[in-house]
Amino acid sequence: MRFLSLLSFIAVLVTPALTQDQIPPGVAFLYNANITVGLSVDVGAIPAGNVTVIPVIGGALIGPQISGKILAIGADWGLSTPQGAYFSDMRAQIRTMDNANIYVQMSGLMQRNDGLIYVRATFQTGHKDYWWLNYAFAFGTMRASGTGFMVEMWRLTY
């Protein structure tokens, strides 16, 4: 076991530093969203915790490359654990200002009691102007508001 630890340590020492070819990706702002939700449905306790479904009933988003409304299609299937964590699994439908339809799925985790949920998002669309979203690596934050959730979304750039 010590021999493997020594080999691992040596491997770290001889690994070359970040080179010109290994420039880390940047980030670009994607959008701010205000998601309106309806009354929650308590599914109840399961072995992992308690499941609550929160219906998505509308909203809007605005960003430099994508703006539109959030349709009344979708929900957040949330899991609250006995340890106090909250796992969000939200699915929603976006209709852009130019009538493109984009399906978004966000999942994330709230670990503290401050209400901040760190999320990652995937998008699906057949619209040529937003095709790039199918390959976007998106991440952001989601926080409860008076009528639902506020979301800030970013994407990695290369």
From TrEMBL:
Residues 1-19 form the signal peptide. It comes from the Eukaryota. InterPro entries: UPF0311. Keywords: Signal. It holds the Pfam family DUF3237. The keyword Signal applies. This is Uncharacterized protein. It comes from Cladorrhinum samala.
